[in-house]
Structures are given as structure tokens and as C-alpha cells.
Write a structure and sequence with these properties.
By secondary structure, the protein is mostly helical. The chain has 14 helices and no strands. The protein has one domain.
């Protein structure tokens, strides 16, 4: 573990040096993501200018859900964004072969090969939204509550990672699974809002099949009294561990089935 931690720090520093060579591009990437997220939040604000609650949820309670989702997603966006590129940048042109002949875990090397600067914008928005929402919630916060919130956010991030890794692994059989990864990832947009506002089928899908509900809604429901699912939400870290294990097992199976494109 020490070896991989040191290796990742070297990869990370090198990626940051590369990004800092183009500082304007770095800042524009962050700002573009922040503006995109602000547009979504502005839309929610416009809706709540005409209503007081949405199926029992207030504006700041929905902001709280949104903030958890955005902050959790930023973990994926910053450190694991290379998962999107497995098929079209690595397997199709034959670049994945070089990862297999190096004396480190190929998944580690693949993930460490990229740091996405846009994710810092996502992180900033998540922190700003949480900082805006929390003072308006009727919650008595203690140190343990903030620690639990941090655990929930980290778990949220790794659920995003696990889902993307699972579906990106399909590229070992179909060369490029990006359309599937993109379609599944778009379902996470539903998780930024209370699952109770959707049809039961969607809620079931986002709880038991693709567990995006645990990336924001259930963690938020734990802290907001009277919303239910308090004990259910405590399973969020367990869900993160299980989904990561399943995704990694599926990745290893994909590695065994991998055949070079010969490019």
C-alpha cells in the first residue's frame, strides 16, 4: 500500500504540473463546470419561487441533497475520470497493452494516468451548496455528525466510481462501452433530488439495481428528521464497499477476456 500511495502521489504531482502549464485552460475548465452547476441550481430556485415545498421537501433540503451528490461526484470526477476513456483511448488504439506489461496493477495505472481539473469546480460547487443549505436546516450538528457526513460523501464518491468501472469494463468485450457508461451515468441526475418525487419503479432502480440513491438522497434523509430511511441510510458505506468489490471482480474478469486490437 505504501508503494502505491507513493506512486500515486508522483502521478498526481506530474498531472498537476501538466495542468499548470496551461493555467487559463485549467481555470476555464473549473469555471465552466461551476457555471453549469449554477444553472441547474438556478432552475431549482425558479421552481421554488412558485412553490414552498416539493413533495414535503423544502428548497434548502433539496440543496442539501444536491450538495452531497455534487461533492461525492467530484471524487470520481477528479481522481477516476479516466474510466470514461477506457474503450476509445486505450483499448481501441491498442494503448491498453502497455499497461499490462508494467510491474503495477493495470487498474491502478489506468486510474492514475489522469487527473481531471474540471472536478475541482464540481468540488467547489458541492462545498458552496452544502455551506448554503446546512445553516437553513433544522439540524443540531455535532462533530460526529460532520464526520458521518464526510463518510457519506466519500461513500457517495466511490459508488459513482464503482458504477462507472462496472460498465466501463464492458469495453473488454465490445471495445468501447462509452454510450452505455454515459446512459447509465445520466441516471445519477435523478439522484440529485428526492426519490419520493419519482415513480416507484425509478426509486427501486436507483436503490437496488444501480444504487445512485445512496449517493445523495438516503444520506440526506438520515440527517433531515422526519424524512424516513434514517437507519437505511447508514448502509451507505456498506453499499459503497460491496459495489466497489463487485466492480473490481468484474474488471478482473474483463482482463481475462481482453484481446488486443492489434493496432
Amino acid at each position: 500500500m505504501k508503494r502505491y500511495a507513493k506512486l500515486y502521489s508522483l502521478f498526481f504531482k506530474q498531472q498537476l504540473k501538466v495542468m499548470m502549464e496551461y493555467r487559463a485552460d485549467f481555470l476555464l475548465g473549473i469555471l465552466s463546470v461551476m457555471l453549469q452547476q449554477f444553472a441547474s441550481i438556478f432552475f431549482v430556485k425558479v421552481v421554488f419561487d412558485h412553490i414552498q415545498q416539493l413533495n414535503g421537501w423544502t428548497f434548502h433540503e433539496i440543496l442539501f441533497i444536491y450538495g452531497i451528490a455534487a461533492t461525492g461526484r467530484s471524487i470520481h470526477h477528479i481522481f477516476f475520470d479516466n474510466l470514461w476513456t477506457l474503450g476509445w483511448q486505450y483499448i481501441r488504439p491498442g494503448k491498453f497493452d502497455r499497461l499490462l506489461i508494467r510491474p503495477i496493477n493495470p487498474l491502478f495505472h489506468f486510474i492514475a494516468d489522469r487527473v481531471q481539473q474540471d472536478g475541482f469546480g464540481q468540488l467547489a460547487i458541492g462545498v458552496i451548496v452544502l455551506g448554503t443549505a446546512i445553516p437553513h436546516l433544522d439540524i443540531s450538528w455535532g462533530i460526529l455528525d460532520f464526520l458521518l457526513l464526510a463518510v457519506m460523501i466519500i461513500s457517495s464518491g466511490f459508488i459513482f466510481v464503482a458504477v462507472n468501472l462496472f460498465f466501463a469494463t464492458l469495453s473488454f468485450w465490445m471495445v468501447d462501452s462509452l454510450p452505455i457508461v454515459w446512459a447509465v451515468f445520466n441516471l445519477s441526475e435523478f439522484a440529485r433530488y428526492p426519490l419520493t418525487i419519482y415513480h416507484k419503479g425509478i426509486a427501486l432502480l436507483l436503490t437496488w439495481i444501480i444504487p445512485y440513491g445512496f449517493t445523495a438522497y438516503y444520506p440526506a434523509a438520515y440527517f433531515i428528521e422526519g424524512k424516513g430511511y434514517a437507519s437505511f441510510a447508514l448502509w451507505t458505506p456498506v453499499v459503497a464497499i460491496i459495489t466497489c468489490m463487485l466492480a473490481y471482480l468484474f474488471w478482473n474478469r474483463g482482463l481475462k477476456a481482453f484481446t488486443s486490437t492489434g493496432s
